[in-house]
Amino acid sequence: MSGLQQLFYLHGVGYDYVKYTGEHVIFDQNTRSQALQACGIDTNDEQIIAELNYQLDVVQWQSVVPEVSLVDAHCSTLSIKVPAHNRVTHGVISVRTINYEHNFDTAHLKVTGEYYYDNITYLELEVPLPPMPIGYHDAVISLPWGQYNTQIWSTPNQCFNPIEKKQLGISVQLYTLKSERNLGIGDFLDLEALIIASAKSGCDFVLLNPLHLLFPDEPDRASPYSPNHRGLINPLYISLDNCRWAHDSDEYNALLEAASKLLETQKQEQYINYSLISDVKHSVLQGLYKGFKSHAPEDLKTQFICYQSEQSTLLTGLKGDGFAVFCQWLASRQLQRCQEVAKRSGMSVGLINDLAVGCAEDGIEYIENSQLYAGNANVGAPPDPWAEGGQNWGLPALDPVKIKHNQFSFFKTLVRSNLNYVGGLRIDHVMALRRLWWCLQVEQEQSGCYVYYPFEHLMAILKIESNIAQSMIIGEDLGVVPPEVVTSMKEASLFGNILFYFEKDHHGNFVPRDCLREDTILMVANHDVPPFKGWWYGDDLQLKYTYNLITERELGTEQQKRSVERQRLLTWLSEHGKNGLTQSSESDAIYQALLIVLASSPSKLLCLQLDDLDFQSLPVNIPGTDKEYPNWRRRLTHSIDDIFAEHAHFIKNLTDIRTGHE
């Protein structure tokens, strides 16, 4: 193997992949070289290549322990590496976090691997350890020739999994919620109302859109999947009339009333005016902050100080901006209260948060961690039936080697912050734990290849943090999923994600209900596909034509395909005992029949999209568009109370089926 080929392998640059058509594609060397160059590596310098290969390969054997040592929490053995000529050696392991010290003799340890370099044989040995608490433990290994530090990750076999019975839940884009009291955008008090209504109907969870911080100075950048910072919360979700300590302030109440009147007309419109709402809400928030500094009870001020101390790492990017930090504290308090309401209302899971696959290249998260990212590389997806040219999501790509910096502190903090105050976390594009498609510019043309990440370590962090937070993990595994990811998800009790629209066999027929996966969250639709009403009537196709996303000829072709799909759905329903429905049937009748069948599926989690219960036909997002369509702005038509009053019997029927009480 040449030096460059070895570096491709050691740095995670892929060699090939199987396209959705079944074609075996081998990446050309120019593309693979560009991936390394994006990581700051001069692929024309043989000396640099040789040095990197030495660091990534040989040094791993010359080091007694790596910076991070993965250890099974239930059957603990620590791997160390020593030269064979030092095999008979006495050593001591000291684990600081649990005040444990263990003496060992390398002569009696099991050999699990060996490596030969420069006339020296290195042995990998297993040192038995006692079971350790789940988490990260700093340890020192003392040998006659020196001391070596490592962080032992005591890792459980599985993520936390509270699911003992089949459950029903609701998915919602929080900003779309409509109410008399909010300021034009769904907020945490609206979320409380949704939780209470859902729990009364027998639901066990509410799945949210990403709540990540966006761009206060550029409010029209509304996509929750291209955020400013994934560890911080969007202040627009703060309920300004839910700050009890401010209720006695006439000045604040007047400010709030004026804001409500100013937004009264905008609240009735179909689409959110982010510029107007952001200006108004931030103005009221500034007034709230001013009043907090002057009049808040001392115990609240103490809590605010404690929050800043506890979250100092997460808040670094805000650079001491007192107002911005105050907004984060307030948002986290209200989110925590929502989860408490969910648990008090009887939900077994409560809130499920959503973690976007990446951040914007000009955002706080990227700027604070730019040293961990590759340059001139964006993440996306290879060609597929919905995007033959592939997809470039415009998000910067993490360097698979640099992400290991400081014992993976970046990824630990990211996961931990998104598990705060929730019962579960959905990870968008979970395949990114294993590999990501890098979009690269090669000889002034778009190209791309897969780059692989330290999967075992990233999965270990998920399992550890999930168990510490007592929150379940869901991986959005739609698309082409590497076999090793499928296996690892199952072994780790990491739930998958099914969209019914896509569950078809090789003939294009919808798969039988009883063949749907068990450990998964099953949904008819999500934010990237049309609501069921829009799908059934083909409104999404007409919408694409209206916005010049398809030609008139393509519209006709797609409408014919949709007619075939609708008939296949009717056939599927008939095969599952739902007869008498035709292509002329109302969408709601088809939808309810579909959900009643799916309620008996093996899937542990069944999720109703609030958009579908609101009879929406317009999507919140059309993938592949930016400003052509008003993405992430469409409001719901009805209030939470009206939606649940309309569907109370239907939802109760579904929960009865799920729990076996039909």
From TrEMBL:
Keywords: Carbohydrate metabolism, Glycosyltransferase, Transferase
Organism taxonomic ancestry: Bacteria, Pseudomonadati, Pseudomonadota, Gammaproteobacteria, Alteromonadales
EC number(s) recorded for this UniProt protein: 2.4.1.25
Source taxon at top rank: Bacteria
Catalytic activity: Transfers a segment of a (1->4)-alpha-D-glucan to a new position in an acceptor, which may be glucose or a (1->4)-alpha-D-glucan
Official protein name in the record: 4-alpha-glucanotransferase
Pfam families: Glyco_hydro_77 (PF02446)
PANTHER family: 4-ALPHA-GLUCANOTRANSFERASE DPE1, CHLOROPLASTIC/AMYLOPLASTIC, 4-ALPHA-GLUCANOTRANSFERASE DPE1, CHLOROPLASTIC_AMYLOPLASTIC
Protein family: Belongs to the disproportionating enzyme family.
